[in-house]
Every structure is written in C-alpha cells, then in structure tokens.
Amino acid sequence: MSGRLLRLACTAVCALSSLAFTVPPEPAAPADGDDRTVIALLTDLQRLYREAEQASETYNATEEQLKRQRAEVRRLDTELARARTSLHDSRAAAGRLARQQYQSTSDLSPYLRLLLASDARRALDQGHVIGQVARERAATVDRLTGGERKAGSLAREARKALDTQLALARKQREQRDKVTGRLDEVERLLASLTAEQLTELSAREERETEKSQKTFMASGALSSTAKNPTAQGERALRYAVEQLGKPYEWGAEGPDTYDCSGLTSQAWADAGTPIPRTSQEQWARLDHVPLDRLRPGDLVIYFPEATHVALYLGNGKVIQAPRPDTKIKISPIAANPILGAVRPDPGSTPMPTYTPLTLPENAEQGSNEGFNGIF
Questions:
Q1: Most Cβ neighbours (<10 Å): which of 105, 206, 238, 296?
Q2: Residues near 61 by Cβ (< 8 Å), separated by ≥ 6?
C-alpha cells in the first residue's frame, strides 16, 4: 500500500478517535471485499494502534533501562579488571613472603633472641626490624585475602548485571516485534478500504482538526499575551525547526528520524537541559505548567495516558513528529486531545526580546494527528 494511502487512512483514524467530536451514527458503506462498515474498520484500527502504543512506550522505556544497564556492566567490568590486577600483585607479594619464610635459617623468636643476645641494644634494633617485617607480612596476607573477596564479589555482580542486560535485550526484542506486528496488521486492514473511503476520511480529519483548534482557541485556555522563551527554550525550538520534514520512526532519536518524544528529548538535550526520553516520563517528572502560562519551548502532552508530546512554538502552534508515515511538521496545538503541559527549565528567565523563528513554507503540510497518542 502506498505511503500516501496509509497517511490518508491513518490520519482519519485519529480524527475519529479525537475527544473533540463524536462519530456520526450513520454507518458508512462496506468496503469492497469486506462486509464490515468503515466505522467497524476504524474501531479495529484504534484497537491495533492502542496495542501498538503500549508496546512502543514500553519499548522506549526499556531502551533507557538497557542503556543504563550497559553502562553498569561496563563499570563493573572495569572495576573487576582493576581488582584482578591488584589481586595478581598481592599474590606475587604473598609468593615472595612464602619464599622468604622457607629460606629463613633461624627458628628463634624475636623474644628469645633478645634474652640470649650479648648486646641488648643491637638485639632490640633487630627485634624492631623483625617486628616491622612481621607487620608487613600480615598486611600482605590481609591484602591478598581482601582482594580475593572483592574480586569474587565483583565477579558475581558483573555476572548478575550481564544477565539483567540480556533479559532487557530479550524484552526489547519482544516489544519491537509486537509493535511491528500491530503495524503490519494496520496496513493489511487499511488495504481493505477503497480510495473513496480514504478520501472521505482525510477530508473528515481536516474539518475536525480545524474545528477542534477553533474551539480550543476560543475557550481562552491560552493567554492572549505573547510570552518569550528562555534562551534554552529558544535553542530547543531552533533544533526542532531544523528537523522539519524529517521522517517519523518509532523508537528513533535522530539525527535522521525521530518519534515524538525522541524529538522533544533531543531538542532539549541540544539546548543543554537533558530531559526524560519518553512522553510519559516527561509528564511524570517535569514541572507542570498551566496552559495559560505556556511559553515557546514548553512541552505539550497529549491523551490521558501521556503518550504523545510536542514542543510549543507559540501562537497556538506546536512542532511535532505525529506518527509513522508522516514527517516532522507544525501543527495546531489542539490537533490531539491535550492532557497538559510541562516545562523543562522552570527556573530560567525568559528572553527580554524574541524574534520568532523563520519556518519553511511547507512546514504545516501533512497529517496533524498523533493516532490516539500511540507514538
């Protein structure tokens, strides 16, 4: 199925699922070769996309866990290598100690030497040296014993960490297969729709997006007073604008393709303020901000499960990576049901003056929908 047809059909799916309107009760005509109505087909599509949504969000979260686990494995491997080097040195010292004891020609203790010596001062000096040697020998044995315990403990930790890494990698592969499997089902289902149905769905999406945006802007949820971004927010927006037109790819963090939270997290990382990788973590861990206090660079979170995110551009527009088979674009802020907004740099001061960034002419072309928050 062509990418154009997939875009037309899929964008309509989210339009029908949007909270901003309800589906008319009249059923559409059945698709050729399929006795289900268009509404029934869209219901199936919504279910498949919701299942893909959960797997995709879990995939991104698991990827972050896997990155941290790989770093922990590397740290333990480095520490274990140092411990083994130290243990090797301690064993060499212990070997020298054993040879010295074996080669010793006297079985007399330092105390007997002191009692039998004709020169007490000289015997005391010898006893001091012997005592020092004994302490050094004891320290050598302690280092050897401690080094063996440490190396053994680190080896066990390293094995456990590696097992965890392998388990996470298996889990990630399962999640990847689940997402791709659901998307394959979506494409097969879309292939059952006629060209007329696809055209109808595309037109419906455009009408409903426009209606949702007008309703939202008229509600006064956004402040009528223009606000400036912070220096970091401006850098994040500049990064996002430079990505306009690049393809969406689930699980991607750039530089050639992105998913929605991959774009927002990389934009803010480029601005020098790292934020969580997934939209759900961004919603959970970043400072919430009322919509009437939105400033450019803030993140707008969508859908009850916080499964879609975009960067606020200003004037009721956002920059987003909508979904598979779309490109990064400028969209109306209300193209998807808004959950709320978060601010990555709550302690920073807005710029005293701000000139909005220059945007390409085709920056608003393409689908605006995030497919019921799947990506």
A1: 296
A2: 277, 278, 280, 281
Write down the pTM of the prediction: 0.65
Q: How far are the Cα atoms of 180, 217, 283 from residue 54, in angstroms, in the given order? A: 12, 31, 16
DSSP 199-226: HHHHHHHHHHHHHHHHHHHHTT-S-SS-
Asked whether this chain's domains 47-187 and 223-375 adopt the same fold, the reply is: no
The share of the chain scoring above pLDDT 70, in percent, equals: 62
Helices 231-242 and 260-270: crossing angle in degrees, nearest 10, is: 130
Tally of CA atoms within 13 A in the half-sphere of 364 that contains its CB: 14
195: part of which helix (H) or strand (E)?
A: helix 195-218
CATH 1.20.120 describes domain 47-187: no
pLDDT in tens, 105-130: 454 455 555 545 555 555 555 555 55
- Answer yes or no: is pLDDT of 14 > 60: no
Q: What is the DSSP string of 277-336?
A: SSHHHHHHHSEE--GGG--TT-EEEETTTT-EEEEEEETTEEEE--STT-B-EEEEGGGS
Report the number of secondary-structure helices (H) and strands (E) in the chain.
8, 6
**Under a CB-based contact definition with an 8 Å cutoff, are residues 33 and 219 in contact?**
no
CATH annotation of 223-375: 3.90.1720.10
